[in-house]
Amino acid sequence: MVETEMPGSLDEAALRQQVAACTLLLNDLEIMGYSGHVSARLPGRDAFLIQSFDQSRAELTAADLLVCDFDGRVVAGNDRPPAEVYLHCEILRARPDVQAVAHFHDDLTTVFTMVEGLTLLPIKNHAVRWADGIPTHPDPSHVASPALGRALAATLGSCHALLIRAHGQVVTAGSVPALLVDSVHFVENARALYQAAALGRVIPLSAAEMEAFQREFKRDKHVAKLWKYYVGRGRARGLLPKEWSALL
Ligand SMILES: [Zn+2]
Description:
Radius of gyration: 17 Å
Bound molecules: zinc ion
Helix content: 25-40%
Largest sheet: 8 strands, mixed
Structural class: alpha+beta
Number of helices: 7
């Protein structure tokens, strides 16, 4: 499915602000933590923005971001990329519809890869984003080579998220704002399923219920509303510089 969320006219400066803001906000929400990364495809180029290996997720600036090509080489910037840069390279190479990728290591969500026969199901309404399934990549390794990146992209297939066994998560979207919103909902859904399962037999959303919700759902409006909320929250808390005027 080709996504049309990315306005397409965003220049590199605006995308830099979005990627840095998304990282800072995911960190503040305790989804990102001390490792993990957000990337965004640069329009019209086989290249993307990503933070460096060492830069703190709590202090990232727009100027800190590197430009990397799909082979993981740094083409602009003076630092080394994250060891798992190949996760981003190979998903962006394989999936032209994907404009932004998040990789993080949320402990509670990772629990769903650790129990035999257990599957992360869409249980909350906004989790219908993953009605096509949430595959689990069987190899827990850090995605630190092109071959490991290609294997992970193959597991993802045409889905919008995956779990890496005993390791973490990947979420993909058609824009950075949508990536933030999807990442929040992805973790919310896992937490809801964990809590519901502790109380009794889980009732997942049926295929018909997911279809009905998707039919009525205005994804673009929802993404815009939540992006505005989280950017506003970030500004109020002093996380996001006021001069990042391209965010809203
Ligand atoms: Zn990882």
